[in-house]
Amino acid sequence: MAQTQVEKKMSTKKSNQVLHKKNKTRPQEKSLPLPKELLRSIYSLMLKTRILEERLIKIYKAGEAFFWIGGPGEEAWGVPLGLLCHKGQGPEYDFFHLHYRATPTLVAMGMPMIDAVRLMMNRSTDPCTGGRNFSGHYCYPQWNITPITSPIGIQYSLSIGTARVQKRHNSKGITIVSGGDAGTAEGDFATCLIWASRPKQELPILITVQNNRWGISTSYSTQHGEIHIADRGKAFNIPTHVINGNDPIETYIKLKEIMTYIREKGRPVLVEAMVSRLYGHSSASGTNFIPEEDSLQLFEQKLLKQGVLKEMEITEWKEKFELEGRQAQEQVRQEPAPQESDVWNHIYANNENGDWRNF
Amino acid sequence: MANMAQAIRMALHYGETHLGVKDIFGEDVGEPMGGVFTATQGLKTSWNTPLDERGIIGMAIGIGLAGERCVAEIQFCDYIFNTIDLLKVAGNTLWSSNGQYPLSIVVMTPVGAGIHGSLYHSHSLDGWATRLPGWKVVMPSTPLDAYGLMLSAIEDPNPVLFLKSKALMRVRGAELIPGEPSDEKKLKSMIDAPIGDRSQWKPQWPQLEKFMIPIGQGKVLCEGNQITVVTYGRHALLAHKVAEDLLKNNRLSIEVIDLRSLYPYDWALIKKSIQKTGRVLFLNEDTEVTNFGEHLAYRATQELFYELLARPRVLAGKQLPGIGLHPNLEEASVPSAKDIQKILLEIAEEVP
Predict the structure, then answer these.
(1) pLDDT score recorded for residue A284
(2) Range 110-139 of B in CB contact (< 8 A) with A
(3) B4-191 maps to CATH 3.40.50.970
(4) What residues have CB less than 8 Å from B12, skipping those under 6 apart?
């Protein structure tokens, strides 16, 4: 399988390092499943995401924001996805129809922390929504991140449209849609399976479900008769995978293989990633830490044991990301709020009048 | 003269050949049928979808998000209601993205009663449609207007709902579409698919020209100075006929405005007319409670109160859960020519 851009960058770094420290290379590095620098990068992005999400929760708890919703616990899934995508604008690149637990993917793609804080604190500087929407509702047209919305599951219905355009362009760009396990009960999930698998008109969509076994307070076990959500793809002849979304190495390797398949074949794949939900659903469920399997801790222990990371580096990175988050919050406090007149902005393109009083 | 179905078909052909439309889709929209009203016959970019309205609207939004133009159809507006939240999303995408994601998409759907369509082929959508901020809404009453409004809808950088009065789909207008042959039999032989096997059939499109009717521009169907009627769709034609009869039989001079666009709407035209007549009727066939006409009547009352000679009236469909099939039931449910005449006479007789 071809190397991704990230891996090429990493392997160049690695080979330089190996060149300089040839004699010091530990024997276990040779058996690492992914390049060392890539592993370090994945860890660093997972850590950065976690610290960012915890910063957002602190902002909420301090009364500086109305609502928090996000994805702590999904870092091992979302970071590899963000690293593996073809990032850019237009049908030649990957389109994203994400849900509101996508911070890991956005951080991996290069979103600065301060953008998430601006969105959280509804400032007019918020590049995604101009202070209109909740945290986690990202929108970056320059990266084909289509607006994340609150209605559960509708992104599955929207994804078929961008995928059709990519198919028409014979592009190597694919469409990526994500949602939670509870949201697959919406008809939109079935819409996506049906429209993506029409005979001779299959669509290049990576259909994903992050299964954390909860829909707010309702347990998966009380609502789902199917063993795996992914099994629903089988009825449509869609290849399916159930992966451990708490393992970033497994996720990276599987996603890379699957995304390459979709790019080459122009056909859909359904992936169900088993993940944790570490701070509950949102503000609505208290935002307190819930002891589930923590992908960040597990990965950290693994990399320490393998000598890929040092304790001191972790401490340094944590301090660096904490500082970035704190400074972002301090700066955003000073940034302007949206004005009353802004409600009339962008109802129609080119700010054409949307107020009937002015017709 | 083209009928409205042919006019829409020609507009869509112009759209796919000149305005960048890449997809025209919906249930039975592609071959072999070309739409239940034949409005999409012979188009090169038309295709059939699964029977899934949410998928149809989702597909349209997705295509728009990818920056391309499309026209989607919901076969009857009676079946659009399970997509209302998606229509809301389409309407708020530009706003919620802080101006970053315009959606240049068109959704067309047949509306209204008048064809013995019973409960689920008779719904109106104008009231619902005007409660979708971010959308523009048009509703033509003649083939030429349908052509010009469809071209404008396609070119508009915003989502546009194109409401087609199903009772008007076979009605011909008095004006030729630019490029349309004057002989309607010739037009039929060129662009109507034959009955039976169509597998070898290809349309011969006339050399159509660009003709745009700006969204937001109404028109006066007949001038008058005693009462203003503001309406649209099939009731524009009905009101026009009633106005002609009342002029002839009762010497009542009625001005009928065909709004053509519901949002944005042509308030300047309405205002000017009411200032002239002092009396106004807002007429449509959607159900009467929280009816679009009520908004217009409210505005007329607020802004023109001291210029009015009579209470502004709304005549609309009765607040019923459906339209019954028997003609007695259907005619009792939506405004008829008789109802329009009766209320206009009442308005004329009102003493301030």
Answers:
(1) 81
(2) 133-134, 136
(3) yes
(4) B21, B24, B39, B40, B43, B46, B71, B150
